[in-house]
Design brief:
The structure holds three protein chains of three kinds. Chain A is mostly helical. Chain A contains ten helices and no strands. Chain B folds into two domains: 169 residues, P-loop containing nucleotide triphosphate hydrolases (Rossmann fold, 3-Layer(aba) Sandwich); 77 residues, no CATH class. Chain C is of the alpha/beta class. Chain C has a single domain, classed as 3-Layer(aba) Sandwich (Rossmann fold), CATH 3.40.50. Helices cover 34% and strands 23% of the residues of chain C. Chain C is built from 13 helices and twelve strands. The longest helix of chain C is centred in the middle third of the chain and has 17 residues. The radius of gyration of chain C is 21 Å and the shape is globular. Classes of the chains: A mainly alpha, B alpha/beta, C alpha/beta. At the B-C interface, helix 5, helix 6, helix 7, helix 8 and helix 9 of B face helix 8 of C.
């Protein structure tokens, strides 16, 4: 069977078995494409002020209306999608690498390293992300970098704990013991044998951490500590729109709706990936 | 006189308890010897300590008391003993790294030894053939193989460095009846060919008796009897051995 | 006695993305009321699928292509949801390989047995049931959680639950495989006794030929999704009529004679993707003829057996393979 046929068969199976995840996948794909190529669409400039009258409701000319500076809101939302995804994704990707290394080390080497890493992760995990966010923003000052650091610190324990637990489960398996007996070094075992087998759990956690990251970023930006103007993320747009909730509700509604869809679609896709890679019972989807 | 491949004298393995719990003696005063080209069977109920004893023989667990000698010398570090030891474990589904091709799994011990790629490839092909699989299996992933085939690949990996000693820990227990026979015959033939010493750990007396010249019976950490295969079946000395035999026949 | 269960030409396929595999290829079997039947087969023989099919417990990717399964005269596959639920609850008892998967780890044992028995049983009734399953100190066991029991004790609880409602058929899938060798026989004996006391039928799925020979009246051997031989267990094991049964026992390590090399069956069982129009065992059969590759052997009666082999009479006439004889 050609790859194309396999992909279309897989899609048909997904649609039949788990419609919600299929919808989530479509939604996520649309949002990501918008975020990537949106700025190149023939729309108004997102930062150009006074393109139209201020605070006009949605119309054909301005699909999401205009904000208090007369900027068309739709291109700003698209900018927001891009910023939200990029910030969260980059933070989470970096964190996943560190988290995986720490988790594997703790889970395979055990002993003092495990004690240290696991305890620190637990302590970090116990702090509410918001508190950490405020602390870090206070130290580093508001901005993109600050948001990335907060997301990284808040999601690191997630990765460490999950990868550690998967590694613990792998440690007694035949091929690992065989490698030890053959005299392979711990580094080699972690790189060749453990890493490829925790990759599945890592990907699942990545999607979950991504949605957590997006929420954190939005909250920070909503509080004014994340993305600063003239840049925009969905959270900062929500902040902007909430000031005019009574007489220009479309601002908050549109940005809020897009934000919720983005988070929901990431969660749905994450669930679907998890069902494929780690089924709870019975056979996996494939 | 050639020293036995593995010899244990009065080996104790104690796991320390923590926080007020008493320690556990997994192995109590075990002594045994295994020579080249010989298989020693080790039987007993689950939890009797046979796997722990196997790990001691492989150098994975250090005795708390007593001495373990490998080819007459102190064991030293596992890394020093690269290529001299191997193990084949129970569950075929975890015997091989599911993410790498079988050929790469088999050549792993050679990579650790630093052999050249061309040499490795040659020996992998030769080894796969001698366990009854054609060379094409090197390119397949473990998920495409049956349980019996995976155990064969695991055996190929175990033998690729011509080790002096192999531990088989319940290596055929999870296999189908007809596949068990194939794999047992394979182990017999390979031992005649390569001359390794082996410890065959199992709860299945029938399989153990088929492979081993001598058999040791373990109970609650102690070796209660060691005897030749024949002696063991005609006149088992310890009442525990008798109860195990009765249960099985 | 009319048959309790009738499996008629049952064909079941499992679908995956790129292909379908037949787990059952026209399986035929009957289970009589009050008898104990052992179903023996290796991986890929279809025995697990058959066991699950009786209670219509197949996973969603299993598809019935042909045939039917009749329980007490009614089709299991055509039954409505309520009827199937009542079938599983009241008529069938299940015993699986690992007692820990059958028992709820968060519920005390006594309560689970009470739920299995249905109605509002008294503590004394439950204790009596557990005593019948040879569990001493039933009150303590009723208060325990599953993880506090040993494997053997937990399996005895599962056995008690399987007959608690007077179920007429107990389905046991490798019931002693995860127990220590020293207690297997005793747990098996308890199961046999209990089901006989209740006049229930027992369908036991296993690969352990020796144990099965001791505890089952009849034995059915499965290969490549078909039932290839059925008959009284003592006879089948000593005088097999199907080459596969014969080869299976000749190659079983527990029948090995001292100093005699085992003769395993060469090759491996086939993966069946379509109805076999010839004999699925032929490529590995030592008695194969050209007919075996051309025509599908139908199940037919030969002496006291039902066999699917063109040359069953010839096989029967050969020397028997005795696995219960002492080693020479």
């Amino acid at each position: 069977m050609s790859t194309r046929e396999k992909v279309s068969d897989a899609w048909a199976m997904l649609w039949r078995r788990d419609r919600l995840s299929a919808i989530g996948l479509v939604l996520l794909a649309m949002l990501v494409l918008l975020g990537l190529f949106g700025p190149y669409l023939p729309l108004d400039d997102a930062t150009k002020i006074a393109v139209g009258p201020r605070l006009t409701p949605p119309s054909w000319r301005f699909p999401f209306g205009t904000d208090e500076l007369g900027r068309s809101f739709l291109p700003r939302v698209i900018l927001g999608i891009r910023a939200t995804f990029l910030l969260s994704a980059s933070a989470v990707l970096i964190t996943s690498c560190f988290g995986a290394v720490l988790g594997m080390t703790a889970g395979y080497l055990r002993g003092t390293a495990d004690q240290l890493i696991a305890r620190c992760a637990d302590v970090l995990f116990a702090f509410p992300a918001l508190l950490i966010g405020l602390l870090i923003a206070a130290v580093l000052g508001p901005g993109n970098f600050s948001a990335i650091v907060v997301i990284a610190v808040a999601t690191l324990p997630l990765f460490v704990r999950v990868i550690r637990s998967v590694t613990l489960g792998l440690a007694g398996r035949g091929f690992i013991v065989a490698a030890e007996v053959a005299g392979a070094s711990s580094m080699r075992i972690m790189r060749v044998h453990i890493l490829p087998n925790v990759a599945g759990a890592l990907v699942v956690q990545l999607t979950y951490a991504l949605s957590v990251g997006m929420i954190i970023e939005s909250v920070l930006s909503f509080l004014g500590l994340g993305v600063q103007p003239p840049g925009a993320s969905l959270g900062s747009l929500l902040r902007q729109g909430s000031a005019y909730l009574t007489f220009a509700p479309w601002l908050a509604l549109s940005s809020g709706l897009v934000l919720s869809s983005a988070i929901m679609s990431v969660n749905l896709v994450g669930d679907a990936i998890r069902d494929i890679l780690e089924p709870l019972y019975g056979r996996p989807l494939t | 006189m050639i020293a036995p491949v593995v010899s244990l004298s009065e080996v104790w393995v104690t796991y320390r308890g923590g926080l007020g719990r008493p320690g556990i003696d997994a192995v109590k005063g075990a002594s045994l010897e295994i020579s080249a080209s010989e298989t020693l069977g080790l039987v007993g109920e689950s939890g009797c300590g046979k796997s722990t004893l196997g790990k001691v023989c492989l150098g994975l667990v250090r005795p708390s008391l007593g001495e373990m000698l490998f080819c007459g010398e102190r064991f030293g570090h596992l890394r020093k003993r690269r290529g001299q030891l191997a193990v084949v474990l129970q569950f075929p589904e975890w015997a091989l790294n599911p993410r790498i091709r079988c050929g790469r799994s088999v050549e792993e011990p050679l990579v650790v030894l630093g052999a050249h790629p061309a040499e490795r490839r040659r020996r992998v092909q030769a080894m796969l053939e001698s366990v009854g699989l054609d060379g094409g299996f090197a390119e397949r992933f473990p998920g495409q193989l049956s349980g019996g085939q995976r155990q064969r690949v695991a055996i190929a990996r175990a033998l690729i460095t011509e080790p002096r000693f192999i531990v088989f820990d319940e290596a055929v227990s999870a296999l189908d009846v007809s596949v068990q026979a194939q794999v047992l015959n394979l182990i017999l033939d390979l031992q005649t060919q390569h001359g390794f010493g082996a410890l065959f750990i199992s709860h299945d007396l029938a399989a153990t008796r088929y492979l081993s010249r001598r058999i040791a019976v373990m109970r609650e950490g102690e070796i209660v009897e060691i005897g030749s295969r024949d002696q063991f079946y005609d006149r088992p000395e310890h009442p525990y051995s008798r109860s195990l035999l009765d249960a099985d026949s | 006695m009319s048959a309790l269960v009738e499996v008629r030409d049952l064909t079941i396929a499992y679908d995956s993305i790129d292909r379908s595999v037949l787990a059952l290829d026209g399986a035929e079997l009957t289970i009589e009321a009050g008898e104990s039947l052992a179903i023996v087969g290796e991986s890929g023989s279809g025995k697990s699928t058959l066991g699950m099919a009786i209670g219509r417990l197949l996973p969603p990717e299993a598809r019935r292509l042909n045939g039917d399964l009749i329980y007490e005269g009614r089709s299991v596959f055509a039954a409505g949801d309520e009827e199937v639920r009542s079938l599983r609850r009241d008529k069938l008892g299940f015993i699986f390989q690992s007692p820990m998967t059958a028992l709820d780890p968060t519920m005390r044992v006594g309560r689970q047995v009470a739920l299995a028995a249905g109605g509002r049983p008294e503590i004394a009734d439950i204790a009596a049931l557990l005593e019948r399953a040879e569990l001493s100190d039933p009150e303590r066991i009723m208060r325990s959680f599953p993880h506090q029991l040993s494997g053997g004790m937990a399996q005895r609880v599962v056995i008690a639950m399987a007959i608690a409602r007077g179920q007429r058929l107990v389905i046991a899938d490798e019931p002693t495989a995860s127990l220590d060798a020293s207690i297997r026989d005793r747990v098996m004996a308890t199961l046999s006794r209990l089901r006989r006391e209740n006049s229930a039928s027992l369908a036991i799925f296993s690969h352990d030929l020796r144990m099965v020979g001791r505890h089952a009246d009849r034995i059915a051997v499965m290969y490549a999704g078909r039932v290839v031989e059925t008959g009284p267990s003592a006879h089948v094991l000593r005088f097999p009529a199907h080459p596969y049964t014969r080869a299976l026992m000749a190659g079983a390590v527990d029948g090995a004679r001292r100093g005699v090399r085992l003769e395993p069956i060469p090759g491996a069982p086939p993966v069946v993707t379509a109805r076999a129009e010839n004999c699925a065992f032929a490529p590995r059969c030592s008695a194969r003829q050209s007919l075996c590759f051309e025509r599908r052997p139908e199940t037919r009666r030969v002496h006291d057996r039902i066999v699917a082999c063109h040359f069953a009479e010839r096989v029967l006439a050969q020397h028997h393979v005795g696995i219960n004889e002492p080693s020479a």
